[in-house]
Amino acid sequence: MSLTYDAENRLKALSPILGEYSEWFGRVFRRAFYPGDSRTKGSSLKQPNSLGLWIEDPKATDFVDEGSLDRIRGISGELHEAARLLMDRGAETGGAPGVELVDNFVDLHDEFVAHIRRLERDSLLADSGLDSLTGLRTQEVMAKDIRREMERRSRRGKPFCLVLGRIDDFGPIRAANVSEAVDHLIVQAASAIRECVRTYDDSYRLENGEFLMCLKHADIDGGLAAVDRIQRTLARDATTVRLDGGDRFLTLSFVTAEPEHGEDALELIAHLRADLDKISGERSVSLQYYEVSPLKRYIQSID
Question: Residue 10: pLDDT above 90?
Fold first, then answer.
């Protein structure tokens, strides 16, 4: 795709953000670890305003949906709070803010940078990588995103969790209802997922009533907790659909896994899907994935 004048202007509007945040990131660290250093006293520790100015420019953000803007606002707010806590603790302890606060600040900054980089890429694409029906990310960008998480897992040892969910009885529901009713069901499921994951997690709409969540800096217990929140939200909303002559509540079943170093994430997703297939006909099931050897899976498939 050739670079249009509009796309070039959008990139120019985005480009100052990372530079300003990088300088601010360094100033925050200096204040946290050297609170008495005279060089930090005159420097501005306020979060840069470049992101806010960019968001307020409708010409610069015309390729971004409101959900994505809310997401980057949320990450920016969490990053600002993490910086405040880090500097306050550094001042209290004379420059020893603690590894947990440091890790939280660094992780949020990494997520912020990743989202700005994604916006830069999306500004060059006709498709922003978002599903037009649900606002979740699309299957087409999923593989690249997950490969990045696997690389981060290898580089920094940070765990992440994959959760595959499927609308229960989606095949029969789709066969028994008009497309508008099925779309409404998908939108409601996506809404519950968005409500229950964190601002920096990624969620994808797949085919056949399936959704994938990539939960950053979360282990298997964090994934199971997210599933529990989603199922409780679905029960609260009580969305119904016609099936077998009556109304059925919208429910999803899930299987959760924590990818290991060097694992093929896309192959793992195929295994998660196979585990969901085994519980077809059940409702609101939450499974934890256990690795099974390829030979055992083959034997199970022919039983």
Answer: no
Q: Are 161 and 265 in contact (CB under 8 A)?
A: no
**Residue 180, CA atoms < 13 Å, CB-side half-sphere:** 0
3-state SS class at 239: coil
Distance, in Å, from the CA atom of 12 to the CA atom of 149, rounded to the nearest integer, reads 27
Could you tell me the pTM of the whole model?
0.68
Strand order in the sheet with 252-257: 137-138, 202-205, 210-216, 160-167, 252-257, 286-288
Q: Cα separation of 123 and 116, whole Å?
A: 10
Check if the beta carbon of residue 218 is closer than 8 Å to that of residue 159.
Answer: yes
Residue-wise pLDDT tens digits, 140-174:
889 888 888 888 877 777 789 999 999 999 999 99
User: Under a CB-based contact definition with an 8 Å cutoff, are residues 259 and 157 in contact?
Assistant: no
pLDDT score of 98: 93
Residue 33 has pLDDT above 80, yes or no: yes
DSSP H or E stretch at residue 161: strand 160-167
Separation CA 96–CA 102 (nearest Å): 10
Ramachandran angles phi, psi of 216, nearest 5°? -75, 145
Q: Which residue has the tokens 């990818």?
A: 259
The CA R_g of the chain, rounded to the nearest whole Å, is 22
Contact, 203 vs 197, CB < 8 A? yes
* Cβ–Cβ < 8 Å for 213, 163: yes
Q: How far apart are CA 37 and CA 41, in angstroms?
A: 7
Which residues are bridge partners to 202 per DSSP? 214
